[in-house]
């Protein structure tokens, strides 16, 4: 069936419907990964977004049981150039088309995704709709759309839950975390307690954790209240590692500002340079906001990583406390595992902090 992707700047991209036969609206973004579409679609950081894949063929290995990054995907739509309706892989449980139908997510194929990507790069991320008719009424509805400001609330847990193990006790503040993050902490045998993002410092201290990890998540960090204050109360008393949206909130807690990027970083081929060593890691990224370099208080924060293409700040470390953050997703899922060593650094930071605390008690 004929469908249209319309953008708020008046652009129209015709195509064919697949997935759920629904009209949808959201922020249009493009992602540059060549594989990993299942992880991308189920990533909570894409909540409320219509995802355009720059890779021309999507769906060729179907959907499997292992690569979910959330139980329920919350993206608003999927845009592809060419869809494979008959995937061939030994782990395939269903096609991408069947999966999107099951989850109530509409898609459009046959779109000139190269032209679409150029449009987004030129004009920036914007509101978009998947519609049956690209008429004046559809554009009026799109322009009248007010984007939600409760995106984290839509995807984050509302109740604490454990992921038990015998290693370091780590509290994870859920801002929209991916399953891959929990898998990585399980790899390190961490005894994890996942807490809602509204949890205050007092409740965190009551659990006596060895470390606190702030997860990735969707939306504007300025729409999330209370987390920066919690970070201010915790840092210096418990080692902190912050990722993605958590990184932005960590920066804000220490006096920095954030801004909305023109079209963000979405994909897993983003080169990041560690300033101290010159090391280059290819990283998975999914964010539309970044930390403003001019706002960094150099007495408190040290910039540790930058994106080599646009010089975006990709990592920070506190100069006084055992606390650091990265804008990218070091666990990969999907994407390269170049930056997994950051979890080693977190574990080493916890060990060093605990040793120092024991010495003070002697």
From TrEMBL:
UniProt keyword terms in alphabetical order: Amino-acid biosynthesis, Arginine biosynthesis, ATP-binding, Glutamine amidotransferase, Ligase, Nucleotide-binding, Pyrimidine biosynthesis
Protein name (Swiss-Prot/TrEMBL): Carbamoyl phosphate synthase small chain
Annotated CDD domains: GATase1_CPSase (cd01744)
Family: Belongs to the CarA family.
Residues at which L-glutamine binds: 45, 217, 219, 245, 286, 288-289
One Pfam family it belongs to: CPSase_sm_chain
Sequence segments annotated as region (CPSase): 1-168
The gene coding this protein: carA
Function: Small subunit of the glutamine-dependent carbamoyl phosphate synthetase (CPSase). CPSase catalyzes the formation of carbamoyl phosphate from the ammonia moiety of glutamine, carbonate, and phosphate donated by ATP, constituting the first step of 2 biosynthetic pathways, one leading to arginine and/or urea and the other to pyrimidine nucleotides. The small subunit (glutamine amidotransferase) binds and cleaves glutamine to supply the large subunit with the substrate ammonia.
GO molecular function terms attached to this record: ATP binding; carbamoyl-phosphate synthase (glutamine-hydrolyzing) activity
Keyword Iron: no
EC number: 6.3.5.5
Record has Ligase as a keyword: yes
Domain of life: Bacteria
Source species of the chain: Lactobacillus selangorensis
SUPFAM superfamilies (UniProt xref): Carbamoyl phosphate synthetase, small subunit N-terminal domain (SSF52021), Class I glutamine amidotransferase-like (SSF52317)
Catalytic residue list: 331
Biochemical pathway: Pyrimidine metabolism; UMP biosynthesis via de novo pathway; (S)-dihydroorotate from bicarbonate: step 1/3; Amino-acid biosynthesis; L-arginine biosynthesis; carbamoyl phosphate from bicarbonate: step 1/1
Any one GO biological process: 'de novo' UMP biosynthetic process
């Amino acid at each position: 069936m004929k469908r249209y992707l319309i953008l708020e700047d008046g652009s129209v991209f015709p195509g064919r419907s697949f997935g759920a036969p629904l009209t949808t609206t959201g922020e249009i973004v493009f992602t540059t990964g060549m594989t990993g579409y299942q992880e991308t679609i189920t990533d909570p950081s894409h909540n409320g977004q219509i995802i355009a894949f720059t890779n021309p063929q999507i769906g060729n290995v179907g959907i499997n049981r292992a690569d979910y990054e959330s139980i329920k995907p919350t993206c608003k739509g999927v845009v592809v150039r060419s869809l494979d309706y008959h995937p061939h892989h030994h782990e395939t449980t269903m096609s991408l088309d069947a999966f999107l139908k099951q989850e109530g997510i509409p898609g459009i194929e046959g779109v000139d995704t190269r032209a679409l990507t150029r449009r987004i790069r030129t004009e920036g991320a914007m509101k978009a709709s998947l519609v049956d008719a690209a008429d004046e009424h559809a554009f009026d509805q799109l322009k009248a759309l007010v984007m939600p400001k409760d995106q984290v609330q839509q995807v984050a847990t509302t109740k604490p839950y454990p992921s038990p193990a015998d290693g370091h006790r780590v509290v994870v503040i859920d801002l929209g975390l991916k399953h891959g993050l929990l898998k990585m902490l399980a790899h390190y045998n961490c005894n994890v307690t996942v807490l809602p993002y509204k949890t205050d410092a007092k409740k965190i201290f009551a659990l006596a954790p060895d470390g606190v990890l702030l997860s990735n998540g969707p939306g504007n960090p300025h729409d999330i209240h209370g987390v920066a204050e919690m970070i201010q109360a915790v840092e210096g008393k418990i080692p902190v590692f912050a990722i993605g949206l958590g990184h932005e909130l960590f920066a804000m807690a220490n006096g920095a500002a954030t801004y909305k990027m023109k079209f963000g970083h979405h994909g897993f081929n983003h080169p990041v340079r560690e300033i101290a060593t010159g090391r280059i890691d290819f990283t998975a990224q999914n964010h539309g906001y970044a930390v403003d370099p001019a706002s960094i208080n150099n007495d408190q924060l040290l910039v540790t990583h930058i994106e080599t293409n646009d010089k975006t700040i990709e990592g920070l470390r506190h100069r006084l406390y055992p606390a650091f953050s990265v804008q990218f997703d070091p666990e990969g899922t999907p994407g390269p595992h170049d930056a997994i060593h950051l979890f080693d650094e977190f574990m080493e930071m916890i060990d060093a902090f605990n040793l120092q605390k024991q010495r003070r008690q002697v």
